[in-house]
Design goal:
Two copies of one chain form a homodimer. In chain A, a hairpin with a 2-residue loop joins strand 4 and strand 5. Chain A is built from 19 helices and 19 strands. Chain A starts with a strand and ends with a helix. In chain A, the strands form five sheets. Chain A has a six-stranded mixed barrel with strand order 1-6-3-5-4-7. Chain A is an alpha/beta fold. Chain A has three domains: 84 residues, Beta Barrel (Barwin-like endoglucanases), CATH 2.40.40; 204 residues, Nucleoside phosphorylase/phosphoribosyltransferase catalytic domain (Pyrimidine Nucleoside Phosphorylase, Chain A, domain 2, 3-Layer(aba) Sandwich), CATH 3.40.1030; 89 residues, Pyrimidine nucleoside phosphorylase-like, C-terminal domain (Aldehyde Oxidoreductase, domain 3). Chains A and B meet through strand 2, helix 1, strand 5, helix 5 and helix 10 of A and strand 2, helix 1, strand 5, helix 5 and helix 10 of B. Strand 5 of chain A pairs antiparallel with strand 2 of chain B.
Chain lengths: 509, 509
């Protein structure tokens, strides 16, 4: 074996996107290189190479001549059991010198950000360095020019799609709001009008369902780029999972650190959103900003500032961006969970009498604005055009056609077990905690079990009587149902009922 | 078992000071809480609690009802195999809000820094948040007042010693220089003059030997506080390992992140050094700042700025601080490695003819300055007093007495295998790479094998002939010796020889 070489072994440990390798502390390589735990090491083999964090093992599950790799390290390295891997001190990353110059008050230019984002996207930059960068960008740490340069750099280190058609429109919603599944209605309306809308969506990260999870209960979403192109060329639109596209890969790495740091950086948020859209080949983008006490953007002033940043940076990148502020105070529609949300969407598309009106209204608002941005509808006429397309069944037909093109329309599954939670008193619904709704739906099994989740029977300001059902939990196993129920009973109520209001008319003089 | 409880298991994985727990991704707790890998989780059991990073396991070494703990998590938790541990989302740390206000331009005050350092010292603050804090402190990110407040906060969250004697003196050296083992000579000189000098030292972290490692080849160093007090009360001085004292524990956590980030923060460096000294109960502190191309402080201007910061912050904390700039261009003495350095120290104390003059001179310089600071020697008379104490044998007698008081004088071990590296040409020694010397000594086994290391036979400007020995490698096994030699041959030379100089006088007209 060559100097510093060890035999590869899959550790079966998931460290998310941070690659970790495991070596015995008493192995020759650790002794020779003087590695400490948490050291950054370079692993190479036949031209492949990887930067990883070292964790030293004293237990007996690893031999002295072995190196175990975490799942992300294993995949990034493309390793096989028994491969000879060489472990060394990593080369000094030139891009990190740019971090230091930013610290010393210099502004970051495109070349520096490009080098940095290149290393970030390849997983070469350790988390603590990412955290340092995010800290420098905090608040208004990036000015407009730097934000433009960062967005460009993030686009340029990944793939960028070109549809050969114009205009290509897109939408984005900032911060999750349970049940806000407008995309599945907006895309078929817009596409039915002949406007190109190739939509990539994400799966749930911390929520009960991502748009891709919901769509997957109705049609396949795991399409590669060639398949996605065929769908869009035939139907003008698609709703697929964006993961396979490698669009703005640096953004994914930064988000991993931004989320736990919970440092707000307007520059990073703008760069994150717009880099994905630019990489996707979008030209006109509508951005939905729900405002509420538990949403990402909580005040009209903050929404306004963010909106101006999005529009300016978009313009610099050749993207026409428009924003719309919507109500983020309670869940949208009824269902929270992949299949339950899909049923809400189908009810709207099928124009059923019991379709949730709020989901329909929001989808028409967004579709109308996109039709106006695309030039298909005259100013102020988009909403009407969208309503016609929805009401005459063209949107439903287009949605079915898109599903068929993506691999075939499916019927969303139904959960094996349901249980309703009822009002403990008469009164008026004063608030619904959107975070607890999402958490409960997850405990019931969403999005892993697509049929699981919660369906809401009330909205804020509804009057309820004692024992009226407030919401119903859906689960695939009795265990999961019990688990979600025990959580519900251990927390503040998800649906808050103001009993005083009901009394007021009785007790008032 | 209670809600979210799992059975403890020791993973035998060393993640340095970052506690990590391992759960199966398909266990009930992960599903229920919606944990992702790299999530911060709180682990509790019978009032004990711990914050740790979660790594999810898909391999079959862990069961669904088990939680495995990394070494640091295991020790911090004081866990035993099979303990029932409950895993939850961690509480929101109030202290982190202070990080955000600093980001928004507010200055940090004592109360905020105290709360933050308290959480830091208890291991509650994840690495990426530490990295964010270090980034905010970068360069001159902390002003003088903030540095004073931070230093106080770091002292106040740990133990603080009070010797009931005055003055208590101390010394510190910034940045390692191989062989610079003056402490073992300075302490007995100063203590022999009746000045109290309770010295705690560190073991090697990245170097071939720490002062504690060197002292350990001559006497026990792993004393608890009570034992240390007895030594100091009897002998006026001691040289012990500082680890058990829990002095400025937050500093250790910050250093773990500062080192890989390699962000220079003058405020953090000053707070780090002075918090340890203040916690130690020191009153007058001499700080040795070696200047060289490979040392931590590389220019007289930087040393000057740092020096002013140390003196001002020290004054605010009631510490009298003085700095001295020394030559950091080559190793001090001959030995590099615990026992080899101990032999240099003993040669100086025993006034042997072959004692390394540079080590003797440096020790006399520092001891003289400390004697002046303590008031024991008149200004400009310290060096003379130190020399008298060294030359008449009082320093040796005091050193032996200190060693006896610490548990008994020992004879440093000698290595089983030695091999000299010889000059390839005639010429003059133009440079010695201090970093490569340290690395080679470590490959030979230092400081794990106390007898291992390197001994230098030449100094910069020495003339050598071809085949003269330049340095000798010492190792306990032939394998380690071969390993260090193969490293030596794979690198640029440790000792650079300028052959042209030897020629010059011959070829000059």
């Amino acid at each position: 074996m060559s100097f510093n070489a060890l035999l590869a072994r899959r550790a079966g440990i998931d460290t998310y996107q941070q690659p970790v390798v495991y070596l015995r502390s008493d192995c020759d390589v650790c002794k020779a290189e003087g590695f400490q735990s948490q050291a950054q090491v370079e692993v190479t083999s036949d031209g492949r190479h990887l930067l990883a964090v070292l964790h030293q093992v004293s237990g007996n599950w690893l031999r002295n001549d072995e190196i175990a790799l975490s799942e992300s390290a294993w995949n990034l390295m493309g390793a096989s059991e028994g491969d000879e891997l060489v472990v060394r001190h990593p080369p000094v990353l030139d891009s990190l010198t740019h971090l230091r110059s930013k610290l010393h008050g210099e502004r970051l230019h495109y070349a520096a950000l490009r080098a940095l984002m290149d290393d970030v996207s390849r997983g070469r930059v350790p988390d603590i360095h990412l955290a340092s960068f995010v800290t420098m960008c905090a608040g208004d740490g990036l000015d407009l020019e730097e934000t433009v340069a960062l967005t460009r750099a993030m686009v340029d280190v990944g793939e960028r799609l070109d549809w050969g058609m114009s205009p290509v429109v897109d939408k984005h919603c900032i911060g999750g709001l349970p049940g806000n599944r407008t995309t599945l209605i907006v895309v078929p309306i817009v596409a039915a009008c002949g406007v190109v809308m190739p939509k990539t969506s994400s799966r749930a990260i911390t929520s009960a369902a991502g748009t891709a999870d919901v769509m997957e209960t109705l049609a396949p979403v795991d399409l590669d780029l060639a398949a996605m192109r065929r769908v869009v060329e035939r139907e003008c639109g698609c709703i697929v999972w964006g993961n396979a596209m490698r669009l703005s890969p640096a953004d994914d790495m930064l988000i991993r650190v931004e989320r736990p740091l919970s440092i707000d950086s307007e520059g990073l948020m703008v760069a994150s959103i717009l880099s994905k859209k630019a990489a996707m080949g979008s030209q006109r983008v509508l951005i939905d900003i729900p405002l509420g006490v538990l949403t990402k953007v909580r005040s009209p002033a903050a929404a306004d500032r963010l909106s101006r940043g999005l529009v300016s940076v978009g313009a610099a990148l050749g993207l026409q961006v428009q924003t719309v502020f919507t109500d983020g105070s309670q869940p949208v529609g009824r269902g929270v969970g992949p299949a339950l949300e899909a049923m809400d969407v189908m009810a709207v598309l099928e124009r059923r009498a019991d379709a949730p009106q709020d989901l329909r209204d929001r989808a028409l608002l967004l579709a109308g604005l996109i039709l106006e941005m695309s030039g298909k509808a005259a100013p102020e006429r988009g909403n009407l055009m969208a309503r016609e397309v929805l009401d005459d069944g063209r949107a439903l037909a287009k949605f079915i056609a898109i599903c068929e093109a993506q691999g075939g329309l499916r019927v969303p599954p139904r959960a094996a077990h349901v249980r309703s939670v009822r009002a403990p008193v008469d009164g008026m619904v004063s608030a619904i905690d959107t975070r607890l709704v999402a958490r409960t739906a997850k405990l019931a099994g969403a999005p892993r079990d697509p049929a699981a989740g919660a369906s809401m029977h009330v909205r804020v300001s509804d009057r309820v009587k004692r024992d009226d059902p407030l919401y119903t939990l859906h689960a695939q196993s009795l265990g999961a149902l019990q688990y979600a129920l025990s959580f519900v009973h251990s927390q503040l109520p998800i649906v808050r009922i103001d009993a005083g209001v009901g009394m007021a008319s009785v007790t008032a003089p």
